From TrEMBL:
This is Sulfur carrier protein ThiS. Coiled coil: none annotated. NCBIfam families: thiS (TIGR01683). The lineage of its organism: Bacteria, Pseudomonadati, Bacteroidota, Cytophagia, Cytophagales. It comes from the Bacteria. Gene3D superfamilies: 3.10.20.30.
Length: 67
């Protein structure tokens, strides 16, 4: 199946959880990371149980600091 991460096609195996997707992308530090799927923010507590569906649009936003 394919989902889209920040508008880039991402092939996935079936039955992947959001946490699996993040791990495959090398996202292991979750502090300051926000995730939305199809324009809906998914709480970090749900990443381990949220099933990614074909054609989902996943948006990853990382907070940064600077001036």
């Amino acid at each position: 199946m394919v989902c889209y991460v920040n508008d880039t096609p991402q092939p996935l195996a079936n039955n992947w959880l959001l946490a699996d997707l993040l791990a495959s992308l090398g996202q292991t530090h979750f502090r300051g990371l926000a995730v939305a799927v199809n324009d809906q923010v998914i709480p970090q507590a749900a990443w381990g149980s949220y099933a990614v569906q074909p054609h989902d649009r996943v948006l990853l936003i990382r907070a940064t600091q600077g001036g």
